[in-house]
Amino acid sequence: MILSALSMVVLLAAPLSHGSQSDTQKQAKPAVATPTPKPSAPATDSRFGEAAQLFDGKTLAGWKPFLPEGDPTKVWSVADGVLRCSGNPVGYIATEKEYESFELTLEWRFDPTKGPGNSGVLLRVQNPDKVWPKSVEAQLQSQSAGDIWNIDEVPMKVDAKRTDGRHTEKANPTNEKPLGEWNRYRIVLDGGKLELYVNDLLQNTATDVEVKPGRIALQSEGAYIEFRNIAIRPLKQAAR
Fold first, then answer.
1. Largest CA distance in the chain
2. For labelling alongside 239, which of 15, 73, 108, 190 has CA 20 to 30 A away?
């Protein structure tokens, strides 16, 4: 009986095997180094003025849609505190006011039942309205949030190693959340300096951006997308 009890202890202490060593090796994933997020500027940052909501969560007050064709009311709508965009036809909805230097924060998500999509945040949008107007685009295409697109040759400097024509790829691998979850953009446009933060990670920068007041616009670019918590804080003194 003593031997049997000892045997039982050994058996209970032995690790259970759920597969061969080769199976375990197949399941193991290599460690991937991820960039350390750079914290967003705190609300007490003295560079910024008071925050103002650009979207009241109930109406499209303060925004003006532009579509070359189609009915804007079938593209842009508001429900449950969310600004919804059907994605078709292409165009954008822009602020009625112009802004030059600021911190812009917003959240966006795509519908997992509709799949990945495309959109963008247009900065310092200039007249005339067209697809697409002169502006700097903070990309929102799935897996590419943080990329920069230069529309209509806005004077600016970007990292040449990551730039192909008008497109400057983000500096780090994508850090977007799974489809259906909210992502956060923090965009700082300080005079001629642009910084794009995706979920608190600095993904892209540009310098010597042409300093000119312009509107802020959200693209309708072929995919359903939702926005919320759109707020802006003006910079008190912009860098030149």
1. 93
2. 108
Dihedral sign, Cα of residue 184, residue 187, residue 188, residue 193? positive
- Please tell me the predicted confidence (pLDDT) of residue 43: 55
Please give the structure tokens belonging to residue 89. 């036809």
> With contact defined as beta carbons under 8 Å apart, do 86 and 220 qualify?
yes
Q: Which amino acid type is present at position 78? A: V
What is the end-to-end Cα distance of the chain in Å, rounded? 87
Q: How far apart (Å, rounded) are the C-alpha atoms in residues 47 and 41?
A: 9
Rounded mean pLDDT, 39-58: 78
In order, the DSSP letters of the chain are -HHHHHHHHHHHHSPPP-S-HHHHHHH-------PPPPPPPPTT-TTB---EES--SS--TTEEEE-SSS-GGGTEEEETTEEEE---S-EEEEESS-BSSEEEEEEEEE-TTT-----EEEEEE-SSP-SS-SEEEEE-STT-TT-EEEES----B--GGGEETTEE--SS---PPPTTS-EEEEEEEETTEEEEEETTEEEEEEBS-----BEEEEEE-SS-EEEEEEEEEEBSS---
pTM: 0.82
Higher-scoring residue by pLDDT: 221, 24: 221
More confident residue, 96 or 35: 96
With beta carbons less than 8 A apart as the criterion, state whether 29 and 63 touch: no
How confident is the model over 167-204, as pLDDT tens digits? Answer: 999 999 999 999 999 999 999 999 999 999 999 999 99
What would the pLDDT profile of 83-121 be if each residue is shown by its tens digit? 999 999 999 999 999 999 999 999 999 999 999 999 999
